[in-house]
Amino acid sequence: MASFPNDITTDILSQLPVKSVARFRCVCKSWKSLLTGACFINAHFDRSSKYRTVSLLKYDDNNSSRIGVYRPHHRELSHLNPSSGHPSRYNVVDSCNGILCLSVYYKDKPGLPDIFLWNPSIHECMVVPQHHCRVSGLIAFGFNPLSGHLDDFKVVNINFNFGARTDCHSSRAQIYSLRSNSWKKIGNVFSSWLGRNLGHQVIFQNFICWGTHARVNGQIVASLVSFDMVEEVFREMALPDSMPSEEKFITLFEGCLSLIVQNPSSQCYEVWTMKEFGVTESWAKLYTTTVLMDGFLQCWPLGAASSGEVLFVKSFYCELRLSLTSYVVSYDTRRREFEEFKVGVEAYCSSRLVNYTESLVSVVTRD
């Protein structure tokens, strides 16, 4: 192997899983230099993004958080959990380039949560340094794809100040850059009503996106909110009038930014996708699920696990609207059928589905 050109060696080794590559770093100094270099890490990630992308299901069970590796149309989870020493309960903000952003909130210091960046493939984890401004419950995570660095990650912390009158409400955001290991402020960012109505985020190209739905001054207000990781600005985009005005659940479906929306007249969910990002007229309804709500039954979408599968949390309620039991179900978009597998969750609001690609990207060392 020592006589092979570097490009051939790189092509061969980039096809291996992360665990194997990590072991081969110990073969010799030249291999360690090759396998820890930016060129190889980029080549390996390009290959992994095509063949080694899975869905991670974060959920709470028995007063602790768990992360399960979900493979399409499989009825069992293999588990992937942070190493010992981390809190037993946490939230998953999102996953990007093999890195998971986790947030932990403590009852005794609600304004000072911990934010972790964790690569489970190479067992690396770092705590984002605390900022002098109050860290909020609304945290976003993404990276700048135009910088040329897979580790150009950014954590966005959004705070809202609610005054006595609506016109006194304001918002502000701070951005943490991993590469510079520093925070900066970007000021008043968008309408304060969004602070209580942004759901889970989705990373699409160089944007962090949310679907919003709220009643403001007696009227339903809905839009698509995005944060540009390159220009570091927030924008709101209108949604088509033909889309139901109910709550929006954002996801990626077949490579496109999509929204899962409940239709109150049919009690079904509709899946809408935006064929051209930023163009309102490009929204189109892909399909409608079978009936989900019936009496005390409620289903809440987690997102698309693959091109033909959407996961939901299914809950039953008693007369006091307290959840008796909740579990995950899979909806096959081709057969229009639901399938169940034995994963019980405490609640929909603490569950999260994200796409994950294993990588060698480090959150500790910088180039």
Automatic annotation (TrEMBL):
It comes from the Eukaryota. Residues 1-48 form the F-box domain. Coiled coil: none annotated. SMART domains: FBOX. NCBIfam families: F_box_assoc_1. PANTHER family: BNACNNG10540D PROTEIN, F-BOX DOMAIN-CONTAINING PROTEIN. This is F-box protein At3g07870-like. It comes from Rhodamnia argentea. The gene is LOC115744357.
